[in-house]
Aldose 1-epimerase (Albidovulum sediminicola), 338 residues
Amino acid sequence: MSMTERLATLPDGSPVERAVLHGGGLSASVLSFGAILQDLRLEGHSPPLVLGFARIEDYLAYSPYFGAIAGRCANRIAGAAFTLDGVTHQLDANFLGKHQLHGGKLGTSHRLWSFEEVGTSHATLTLLLPDGDMGYPGALTARVRFTLEPGGVLDIRITATTDRPTLCNLAHHSYFNLSGEADILNHQLRLAADHYLPVDAELIPSGQVASVAGTRFDFRTPQRLGDACARGPIDHNLCLAPARGPLREVGELRGGDLSMRIRTTEPGLQVFDGAPLAVPVPGLDGRAMGAFPGIALEPQVWPDAIHHPDWPQPVLRPEEIYEQHTQFVFARVAAPGS
């Protein structure tokens, strides 16, 4: 039975609501704060499939965007500024004091959304960001709908509209751990990506679109994450397509005896290995989270694309509707070596 309940209160006195969903062999908890997917479980598999906290206080103090909707423009924007239609906009510089990450310090991941509708297996949340918020032009109305569909499908649909030309690139930011082990190094990842975006020391794309061949980013055939991460850190965009398109399968994550297939409309997938997390408080079920506790797989437009006109663009105009559709499909498979 689904329900909406008050989970906690923010420091300003605002209540944080939680919806509990069941369907398709899955159960999930969704919070109004950040539109966070707090918990996700597969029937018959005890450990949570995503990283999260039981207490809202831990999200406020320690969360590296666990389960949140990142935006209004996810990922990094170099120099925390962009020019659109001849006008330069200075943004909140919340990354290294000079770039922007995930829409600024009070992006969509740190705002209180409103539950618009909640059913047994679905929940819809909405958020209005005012004109000028975090430096972005235009009032943006965003909506996200989580649905647990038959066959172990977590279905996420995100839409947005604006009253002025602006940037919009919203990304669901769960960290996945399918095995319940302390880290994801024995997971295997496969992605339909021939290219990736190299980054500089500050994780800003260099402007090059490079082949994955011979690199740790070559997941065209399944690769063990421990082997990939041993060759260097992974916090990079894998290029799935030159533009947003129809919903299609783009890859699969396997851990233990579980599989998670990834379907999305998006042209990019940010892959973050979680190596530096080492969260100092326990997560769901009291689990410790050291290095590599989960892997973030974030469908989105390519990072810093506004500074690279030949890349897929995050520009949204008043006559348009931003639409993203992503599915994570969970199933049991034979464990390696079984």
